[in-house]
């Protein structure tokens, strides 16, 4: 019964959203992929907002519910199954269709797939004018719901097939799956990444420091000369978060600027307004003079591997502590991927704190690292603060359901910083 009600709601939302798009005809930039979608969406919106009236998906509202709600400019009801909770959304939709409105001329929509067919349903609502693809890793998240990793990648790339001929398709040049699939489309491909042939080429990535303390990431960027505009070079600066992956959303945003003939200098200046979303590599002051890398939003094998590389490279750390929760939604690949990551974490951390049953595999190849095992995040949050020393650098990462943001909160030097963590809404705080 619940599934039937949800389907009915999704269909009605989609009908209203399509009607609104038909009336106002905004241009649509669609963000898809497995890793870094929300960060990329925010960076793209920051750049395009300097030239257009932009509305973007809030947080990670990327489903068949989230996308039409973004189009309608409506918030998420407290209950998807309560008919009365949808009255404000319905009222908003009718006002858009009946009354004159100053509607955005650009929508930046994040899309996501939890199961087969999710993106097909979204594409029946909205057709993109530009598609930005983020990474499509070997073992993507949500793979347990699909027949194979290839099936996940194919679905996540599918918005590109909805593009008209010569429409901009923005892909990561370092991702073989994205590059190979891009060749199969008639779109105008604009690549971004670390390879020399990328249209937006990133190099010399490193930590950005202020007064001897890490404060973010920096990199050089160079764009190729294209028919619409001259090439150029400059420097990207991302404040408040760390990791090479923090640079890629900015590079994708610059590629989007190329698609809309926005000069490089203007795009770089616009990125001053960009900050990584909560739980994505953000830096916090921790207890006893420690530093926290808060990567607690979610965890997939590719993302954990990148986070561990950041921890290993972090300068002047007295101890590197990896607090890692279970990686979920991997299905039959779960055991293999947890064991594979164990070989990496043992080479990246002096202390391994494993949170959850699956995460215990991270201690298998500890290479002499100190190992701490915790049943869940609440227990880890109670025990870890007493173990932290001055000069420690602490990476905290885990799948959403593991709720590793509780550990970050317990480790904060300033409790007021908790408002900047992921999942601080009342509905999340009330969950066990």
The backbone outline, from C-alpha atoms, is globular
User: Termini distance?
Assistant: 26 Å
Integer-rounded radius of gyration: 22 Å
- Which H/E pattern describes the elements? HEHEHHEHEHEHEEEEHHEEHEHEEHEHH
**What ranges have pLDDT less than 50 throughout 5 or more consecutive residues?**
none
CATH superfamily of the largest domain: Mur-like, catalytic domain
Number of domains: 2
Largest sheet: spatial strand order: 2-3-1-4-5-6-7-8-9
Give the structural class: alpha/beta
Question: Any idea of the CATH class of the largest domain?
Answer: Alpha Beta
The CATH architecture assignment of the largest domain turns out to be 3-Layer(aba) Sandwich
For the largest beta-sheet, the strand count, sense and barrel status come to: 9 strands, mixed
Indicate the percent of residues in helices. Answer: 25-40%
Summary, kept brief:
With 432 residues, the chain is an alpha/beta fold.
Structure description:
This protein has a 9-stranded mixed β-sheet with strand order 2-3-1-4-5-6-7-8-9, sandwiched between helices. A 6-stranded mixed β-sheet has the order 10-11-15-12-13-14, sandwiched between helices. Helix 12 runs parallel beside helix 13. Helix content is 32%, strand content 22%. The model has no long low-confidence stretch (mean pLDDT 93). Strand 5, helix 7 and strand 6 form a beta-alpha-beta unit. The chain folds into 2 domains: 272 residues, UDP-N-acetylmuramoyl-L-alanine:D-glutamate ligase (3-Layer(aba) Sandwich); 148 residues, Alpha-Beta Complex (Protein-Tyrosine Phosphatase, Chain A), CATH 3.90.190.20. It is globular and about 65 Å long. It has 432 residues and is an alpha/beta fold.
């Amino acid at each position: 019964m619940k599934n039937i009600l949800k389907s009915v709601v999704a269909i009605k939302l989609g009908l209203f959203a399509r009607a609104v798009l038909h009336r106002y005809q905004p241009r649509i930039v669609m963000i898809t992929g497995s890793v870094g979608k929300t960060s990329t969406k925010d960076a793209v919106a920051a750049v395009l907002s300097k030239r257009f009236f932009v509305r973007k998906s809030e947080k990670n509202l990327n489903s068949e519910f989230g996308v039409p709600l973004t189009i309608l400019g409506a918030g998420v009801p407290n209950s998807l199954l309560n008919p009365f909770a949808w009255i404000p959304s319905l009222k908003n939709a009718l006002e858009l269709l009946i009354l004159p409105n100053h509607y955005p001329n650009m929508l930046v929509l994040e899309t996501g797939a939890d199961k087969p067919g999710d993106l097909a349903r979204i594409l029946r609502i909205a057709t993109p004018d530009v598609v930005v693809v983020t990474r499509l890793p070997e073992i993507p998240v949500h793979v347990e719901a699909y027949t194979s990793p290839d099936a996940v990648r194919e679905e996540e790339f599918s918005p590109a097939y909805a593009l008209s001929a010569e429409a901009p398709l923005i892909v990561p040049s370092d991702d073989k799956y994205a590059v190979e699939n891009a060749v199969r489309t008639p779109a105008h491909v604009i690549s971004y990444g670390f390879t020399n042939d990328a249209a937006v080429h990133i190099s010399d990535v490193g930590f950005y420091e202020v007064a001897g303390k890490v404060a973010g990431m920096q990199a050089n960027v160079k764009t190729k000369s294209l028919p619409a505009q001259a090439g150029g070079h400059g420097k990207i600066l991302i404040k408040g978060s760390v990791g090479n992956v923090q640079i890629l959303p900015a590079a994708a945003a610059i590629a989007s600027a190329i698609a809309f003939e926005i000069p490089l200098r203007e795009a770089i200046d616009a990125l001053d307004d960009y900050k990584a979303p909560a739980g994505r590599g953000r830096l916090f002051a921790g207890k006893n003079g420690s530093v926290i890398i808060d990567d607690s939003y979610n965890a997939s094998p590719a993302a954990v591997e990148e986070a561990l590389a950041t921890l290993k490279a972090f300068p002047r750390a007295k101890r590197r502590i990896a607090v890692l929760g279970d990686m979920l939604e991997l299905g039959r690949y779960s055991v293999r991927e947890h064991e594979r990551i164990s070989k990496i974490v043992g080479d990246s951390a002096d202390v391994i704190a494993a949170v959850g049953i699956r995460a215990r595999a991270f201690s298998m190849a500890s290479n002499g690292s100190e190992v701490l095992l915790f049943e869940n995040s609440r227990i880890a949050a109670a025990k870890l603060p007493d173990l932290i020393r001055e000069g420690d650098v602490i990476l905290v990462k885990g799948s959403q359901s593991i709720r590793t943001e509780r550990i970050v909160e317990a480790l904060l030097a300033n409790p007021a910083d908790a408002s900047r963590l992921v999942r601080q809404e009342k509905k999340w705080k009330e969950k066990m």
